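Notes from the pairing session

We agreed to fold both candidates in a single pass and log them together. This is the raw record for the first candidate, unedited. Please don't reformat it; downstream parsing expects exactly this layout.

Candidate A
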Amino acid sequence: MRDDVFILGVGRTPVGEHWHLGLRELAAAAIFEALDDAGIESVDALYVGNMLSGGVNGQENLATLVADAAGLLPVEAYKVEAACASGGAAVRAATLAVASGAARVALAVGVEKMTDGVGETVAEGLATAADQDFEASHGFSFAGLSALLMRRYMHETGAARDDFAAFSINSHRNAAANGRAMFREAIDRDDFRRSPMVASPICVLDAAPICDGAAAVVVASREVLRSHHRPVRIAASAVATDTIDLGSRADILHLRSAAVSAERCFRHTGFGPDDVDLFEAHDAFTIIAALSLEACGFAPRGEALRFATEERIGLAGDLPMSTFGGLKGRGHPVGASGTYQVAEATLQLRGEAGPNQVAGARRALAQSVGGHGSVAVTHLLEV
């Protein structure tokens, strides 16, 4: 296996409600931008991260659809699904293809068109990431399961609901400076406090929105590099899993998949949490942001809320987090979020993040979580 895999180009559509665009148009737009950024016209393999195309859009065989729309036929192509971590899994598949020598250039694109379905249809689709026998069939929604985690965290730590506000405040502040984010306005603690309840104790500002979007990443071997490239090395890539249902876990507040996949990246590179300059976290809910910080070793158990409240996750903090707004502020088109994270981390390391730039960033950890920690895909990038 080759250990010199690089990101040469990235592409991102704005995140929002794209009523006039379908899956093929969104994916193709991100792919064209990524290929142009890389200065490459063709690829050896295409991996399409997506979660909901069958249930919400009535479209499977998605990778062939996207390959056709992007003018990449007859390229090898298939869809990658790992619940909300599908986009990260597509990047992992592209990384493995290049690392193994099966491809010199591979392209990962994550795409999701959630607004094609009514709220109930989308909620049912998201619930397929939970255990159908023991959770979803008993009426547990995705927000409801997150509420259970948050309530348990509050019970064990003595935290109040308002203590989670710092994550949303940070995400919205960063999204306000991101021209491709869905929510481009800052919020404060009072806004968080007044936010309508969704599933107690989770309110609207704890949760990422339903939206559409696509992001793409071109991955290549060292021999493809040219003088015009601004390569970012994929220093490590790892995946880990845990039980789908929360009830089967010995400790529901420990995201074992997140911890194991991050540790595998650290072990492979010899780096540790203190060597990371920014963290693109899977902040679909504020409780998942908190548990991810702790699982990856950035904060001790029970200390994530204090870590965030002390502004240590801001752009000028110890560990800038969700630097383009994350899932909460930028938006969470579920199967695409993992590719957005990797693309945004790449822009940071290339010094091309504009007003969102983290000064001197050289290493980034991007982690995409599926379900409530049933799968986690982690990439450690460096320049």
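Candidate B (folded immediately after A)
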Amino acid sequence: MATTRTWFVYIIECDDGSLYTGITVDLAARFEAHRAGRGARYMRLHPPRRLLAAEACGDRAAASRAEYRIKRLAPAAKRAWAAARPLPETGT
């Protein structure tokens, strides 16, 4: 029987004020990977300041669609999206 994992779409605020949007199944581990300079090249050039927001999605496809929609938003709209979504409990 396959295990169901919860996928998240998230926004990270970078040290320079820019915003990065991505998807993951483990928010804490992904944020730490970004902090360590692993993963997305953008995050190596724009170190992460904090996890701004995250939202649980039904599966990877839903998370990818949400990521695509969010990436098309203007920065102010991304911040409004983030403000409306408290960070979920990650179990850490």
